[in-house]
alanine--glyoxylate transaminase (Auxenochlorella protothecoides), 402 residues
Amino acid sequence: MAFRGVWGLGRASPGPRVWPPTPDPNPALQIPQRFLMGPGPGNSDPRVLATQSLPLLGHMHPPFLKIMDEVRQGLKYVFQTESNYTLCVSGTGHAGMESTLVNLLEPGETLLVGNKGIWGARVVDMARRMGVNVVDLKKEAGRTFSLEELTAAVKEHRPAVVFLVQGDSSTGVHQSLAGVGPMCAEHGALLLVDTVCSLGGVPMFADAWGVDAIYSGSQKCLSAPPGAAPLFLSERALAKVRGRKTPVASYYFDLNLVGDYWGWYGSRSYHHTGMVSMWYAMREALAIVAEEGLEAGWARHAAAHDQLWAGLTELGLEHFVPAPEDRLVTVNTIKVPEGVDWAALCKFAMERYAVEIAGGLGPTAGKIWRVGIMGYNAKPANIELVLAAFRDGLAAQGWAKK
Ligand SMILES: Cc1ncc(COP(=O)(O)O)c(C=O)c1O
C-alpha cells in the first residue's frame, strides 16, 4: 500500500513496468570530432564550450543578472546599435523569427515578405498562423531584391512590417540593405531582418542602416552552440510592442515580459528560467568577437571565402549565385556539375575527412552544395580540408574539369 501512498497507485499493484529505465551509462557518451563546414551549426569555439561546464547560478542571482547585462552589451556591439533593447531569446533562430513576428505584428496588419529562399517561406507560414495579412513577394533563388522593387511593393501594399533575410543560407545570397531602412520609415513600416547566418560574418550597422528589428542565431558566425537567438529592437519597434492594441499571442515570447527579465524597463522580474549555461556561452562568444574586433572578423570571413573560391574555381566548380555582389561569404553555394552525385560527395567528405558539406535546401535541393565559413571555422586550415574533400571526392567519381 506504500505505493498508493507515494504514487497514488497502491503498493499491491505498482502498474506496468516503465521501460527503458535510463540511457545506458556504459559506454560513456562518445562524440566524433567533425569539421562542421555546412550551413550550421558550425564548430563552437572551445573557449565558449568550456564556459558551459561552469557551475550554475540561479537565474535571478545578481551575478547572473550581471552576465545577462554583459550579453546585452556584447549584442549592442555586434548589432552596432545604441539601442538598449537587445537580448537573447531562449531558443534557436526560429525562436527569434517567431518572437519578432508575434510582437511586431497584430492580427490583420500587413507584412511584406521578401521571399527568396526557405526562410522567407517560413516567415510567410508563421505570420499567416498569427492572422497577419501576408504579401509574399517572391524572387527567383540565387537573386536579391533591388531597392526599387522593394519601394514599389511598399508603396502598393503599405505594410506595417517589411521582412528581409540578410544572408540566405538556402541560396547563398547576401541581400543589400542599402536605403531600405529609410525607405520603410518614410512609408511608416518597420524593417525586420534575419541575420541568423550572417551576424558577425558580414557587416551589420543596425542604427546607421535604419533597421528596426533583427534576430539571429548563436551557432553560426558567433561560434556558440545552438540555443540562443540574439534579438534587437529599435526605439520605434519597441514603441510598437509597448503600444499594441492586442496582447502578444505568445506568452513565452512576449517581449513586454521577456524584456523585463532582461532589464529593458528598469525592473527585473522572473518570466522563465534563464538559460544559465547558454548565457555564459553567449557572454564568452561575444567577448571573443569583441577581442578580435568586428572589422577584423568580417575581413577574416571574406579572406576565407576568397581562399575557398580560388580552390573551387581551379577544380572547375562554379557559383550558384550569378551576380558577384549578391554572393554571401558565410554560406557558399556551389553548382553540382552534370553527372556528379552530390550526396556521394558529401558522404565521401564525411568518411574520408570528417568534413561536413551540405546539399541544397528548399529551392536549391539537389542542385547545389553548401559550404559554411562561419565564426571559429573561418580559417585557412578548414578551407584546405574542404578543398581536399572536393578534389578527392570529385576524382573518386571520375569527374574532372573540362
Ligand atoms: C538564414 C536563416 N534563418 C533562420 C534559420 C533558422 O534557424 P534555426 O535552425 O537556428 O532555428 C537559419 C538556420 O539555418 C538560417 O540560416
